[in-house]
Amino acid sequence: MSNRRPKAGAGKMMAAQRGSEKRRSAALVGAAVAVLVVFAGAIGFGLYQAQREPASAAVPPGATEQGIPVGSPDAPVTLDSYIDFQCPACAAFEQRTGDTIGQLVDSGKVRVIYHPVAYLDRFSSTGYSSRSSAAAGCAAASDVFPEFEEQLFTVQPPEGGDGLPTERLIEIGRAAGSGDDFAECVRQGRYEGWSQRLTDAASRAGINATPTVLVNGEQLQDVSPAGLRAAVDAAAPR
């Protein structure tokens, strides 16, 4: 009897040791798996960011980080035009002064920098301001921005609605003479990141309404055709 008791105690100790070792092994395996999951997640996130960043950082050919230039870079007067394609006042401004601006550009007096911002997204269920701004970047890349901009304001949908469908934006671009890549560019929202940066930059610069027009950096108060010509004449070197 007494000889069997130590053996039974030893067996219990060995079983306890084996259980402890199993628990340690399980804990080590669990920790290793957790590390691998975190590592794999980090790699996956890095690849995701690598795939997104080039698109979000893209600047349309024919545009800059500041906007879409139209006219000679040697023009003595720079006109900055901050517009939102959902803004009714911007459409009215285009209808009143579009021809005047075109004449000033053609004369070599003025270079226009268009800033298609997305201030009114909150009034559209489809983010139309951002979509149309990004599409304007696609139009700049196809060298048809002036025609695209004019037509977008001509067919401007009511503020606060869905805005124009993506396929309608593509139709307008094609009618303006866009290239083969335009449709894919618009569908992908290729320049949405660029549009957001334009909007952020305008906000930081204190531009809080559209349209806002600057002539050589000075805000224009009289945005009539006559007021625009007078401001350009005053700003041009003599």
Topology:
Blueprint: H1 4-57, E1 68-70, E2 77-83, H2 88-106, E3 110-116, H3 128-141, H4 145-154, H5 166-176, H6 182-188, H7 192-204, E4 212-215, E5 218-219, H8 225-235
Parallel strand pairs: 2-3
Antiparallel strand pairs: 1-3, 2-4, 4-5
Helix pairs in contact: 3-4, 3-5, 3-7, 4-5, 5-6
What do these coordinates show?
The chain is of the alpha+beta class and 238 residues long. It has one domain (68-235): Glutaredoxin (3-Layer(aba) Sandwich), CATH 3.40.30.10. It has helices at residues 4-57, 88-106, 128-141, 145-154, 166-176, 182-188, 192-204, 225-235, and strands at residues 68-70, 77-83, 110-116, 212-215, 218-219. The protein has a five-stranded mixed sheet with strand order 1-3-2-4-5. The model is unreliable at 1-16 and 26-55 (pLDDT under 50).
Quick rundown:
The chain is 58% helix and 10% strand. With 238 residues, it is of the alpha+beta class.
CATH architecture: 3-Layer(aba) Sandwich
* Number of helical regions: 8
* Major sheet size, sense and barrel closure: 5 strands, mixed
What is the CA–CA distance across the termini? Answer: 122 Å
CATH topology: Glutaredoxin
Mean pLDDT: 84
Helix content: 55-70%
With strands numbered from the N-terminus, the spatial order across the biggest sheet is 1-3-2-4-5
Write down the Rg: 31 Å
Are there runs of 5+ residues with pLDDT below 50, and where?
1-16, 26-55
Strand content: 5-15%
Strand segment count: 5
Could you name the key traits of this structure?
globular, 8 helices, 238 residues, Glutaredoxin, alpha+beta, five-stranded mixed β-sheet, 10% strand
